Amino acid sequence: MIEGSEYFFDFQRIFIGDFDLMIYLEIVLRVVIIMTYTIIIIRWIGKRAVGGLGSADVLIIIAMGSAVGDAMLYPTIPLSVAITVITLIAAFQKLYVYISVRNNKVRKITHPSVLKLVANGKLLEKNFKVDEIDKNEVLMLLRQNGIKYLSEVEHAYYEQSGELSVYKYDNPILENSILPENVDSIDYKDNT
Are 139 and 118 in contact (CB under 8 A)? Predict the structure, then answer.
């Protein structure tokens, strides 16, 4: 808890504090380690954890929010430290995006691939394991896209954002209802 006695008006303390120059080198090291580790963890958790945002977007929101909030609330953190952290986070994010765009090997590691989950009205269940998604979640995503019958779907792709892109047949034969009350009666043959 913050004590009221910790607040007193002193420009030197507000902007610089009593830190020596070595603290800034430590901050650089801390930011690089934590940002790298967090990218790896977000990637490991998967698409569902980040939703419609990319992993870099989630990371910058969390990291910036913490750095900005700490600087505004805690009188023991000089603004120069917070500004250094915020600048490093922004620079790290720009570098992360730059490297990912320029290098396909890095992009394959840092960005999840697009997976085909439905082909020709059949669930491709072996692809579910890649992103640890289950049949019920795929059916829910299909229903959220206005699909009532599995046979309506020519192709469905699980995007990097965690959303499902669905391509329907123009004139489908309506069979294999994916409405919750009918799910247990569907024959799910993997058509790959």
Answer: no
Q: Where are the beta strands (DSSP E) in the chain?
A: 115-119, 122-123, 153-158, 164-168
What is the tens place of the pLDDT at every residue in 57-112?
A: 777 788 888 888 887 777 778 888 888 888 898 888 888 888 888 888 877 766 67
- Give yes or no: residues 76 and 143 share one domain: no
Number of domains in the chain: 2
Q: Which domain holds residue 126?
A: 115-185
Q: How many helices and strands (H and E) does the chain possess?
A: 8, 4
Please, how many CA atoms are within 13 Å of residue 100, restricted to the half-sphere of its CB?
16
Beta carbons of 123 and 65 less than 8 angstroms apart: no
How far is Cα 149 from Cα 174, in angstroms, rounded to an integer? Answer: 6
Query: What is this structure's pTM?
Result: 0.57
Residue with tokens 């990912």: 100
Which helix or strand (DSSP H or E) is residue 106 part of?
helix 104-110
Task: Give CA separation, 92 vs 4, 84, 135, 155, in Å.
Answer: 35, 12, 37, 37
Neighbours of 58 (CB within 10 A): 17
Please indicate, yes or no, if residue 1 is contained in any of the structural domains. no
